[in-house]
Amino acid sequence: METIFALASARGKAGVSVIRISGERAFSAAASLAGPLPPARRAGLRVLRGADGAALDEALVLCFDEGRSFTGEPVVELQLHGSLAVVSGVLSELGRIEGLRLAEPGEFTRRALENERLDLAQVEGLSDLIEAETEAQRRQAFRVLSGALGEKAEGWRRKLIRAAALLEATIDFADEEVPVDVSPEVLELLDSTLAELRGEAEGAVISERIREGFEVAIVGSPNAGKSTLLNALAGREAAITSEIAGTTRDVIEVRMDLAGLPVTVLDTAGIRETEDVVEGLGIERARSRAEAADLRVFLLSEPGEDLGIPSVHGDITVLGKADAQAWDGPSVSGKTGQGVGDLVRQIGSVLEQRASGAGTAIRARHRHAIQAGIGALESARIEVCNGPDRAELAAEELRTAVRALDSLVGRVDVEQILDEIFASFCLGK
């Protein structure tokens, strides 16, 4: 493969900028700029010089041998002073070296995947870690980057290979020294894998919300103080406030960090009967977004008010404009800040409790693959229960499950299944 190079740190002025070179010519290319290189995995201070011998910069040079780098290839990192001119000069010199080219977006990570330094889930975890905005997103992405999903997938893989081996032994080696009835062990393997996959599928929904953000809708009648409360939560004038009822006609969204979780707070149109066509469209949209939100904050104009939107477990009800009316129950005032802190803590508590059920599958792709695998394994279980005459159908359903989980557990081929058979039953074939 061609040797590639690129700026690995953010563009623009910085204290330090890092240029990465990866490929079989990485060491020779770096040596043409820095002279003799330091030993692998030890940094050395070197003066970088262009083809004309002029000094470009004084930099730390760090080398990684093949198989011990991020990409799995020989890699050199040049840690430069973060000047636009310095970075541009070094990149220009590298571009003049034969056999080197500028890397394409994501190409270093692509090579790490191709060289089996990362699996596909880890690549996605790395992408999410770079994009993480909150502590919960960081923790979740780092867990996946560290290989948590891969470890689970490897456990599922071992069970599926074992189950497939047992079924194949029943079909192809019935006259050999194998257990007469393998169905109890096969069912045990299928049941344990199904239980884990179902739990992971449920957790994936929450994981996706952590990755993409929870939605919290503020719902109330016109002039209940919803926009003022939104501004208090956001700490800025995100929504127009007015004493005139019905000011908000569309859904206003503000993204923020609550309790370390990514949250989009929705300010919706006031719920009421109206003959105004435009306001009516806003109210209909408010109802739709409120019902689809992860959590609703019902901001009441008066105790016992019915807004006509069903409340579900976890939803929060508070009295608005607490500065203008007294009530013994939970109340809040976006104008004075009264009760805002308590409301934020309550929202954070509800969402934290839901986030605790997150799994290691964090993307819709993961969830879809797991659900497809669950469906195939459920069919395989039915065929196993139908008796040994259905072993071939059960084995085919199991292979379908394995293919569905390929993106998570890797490809399971015939040779691996046969290896398991021979190791377990000493068939001597």
Characterise the protein shown here:
There is one protein chain. The chain is α/β, with parallel strands linked by helices and about 425 residues long. It is built from 14 helices and 11 strands. Strands 3-4-5-2-1-6 form a 6-stranded mixed β-sheet. Strands 8-9-7-10-11 form a 5-stranded mixed β-sheet, with helices on both faces. Strand 3 and strand 4 form a beta hairpin. The C terminus is likely disordered.
Brief write-up:
The protein is of the alpha/beta class. It contains 14 helices and eleven strands. Helices cover 47% and strands 17% of the residues.
List keywords for this structure.
single chain; 429 residues; alpha/beta; Gyrase A, domain 2; Four Helix Bundle (Hemerythrin (Met), subunit A); Rossmann fold; 3 domains; six-stranded mixed sheet; five-stranded mixed sheet; flat
The CATH homologous superfamily of the largest domain is termed P-loop containing nucleotide triphosphate hydrolases
Low-confidence stretches at least 5 residues in length (pLDDT < 50)? 239-249, 409-418, 420-429
Along the chain, the helix and strand elements come as: EEHEEEHEHHHHHEHEEHEEHHHHH
How many whole angstroms does the radius of gyration measure? Answer: 30 Å
Largest sheet: 6 strands, mixed
Strand order of the largest sheet: 3-4-5-2-1-6
- CATH hierarchy class name of the largest domain: Alpha Beta
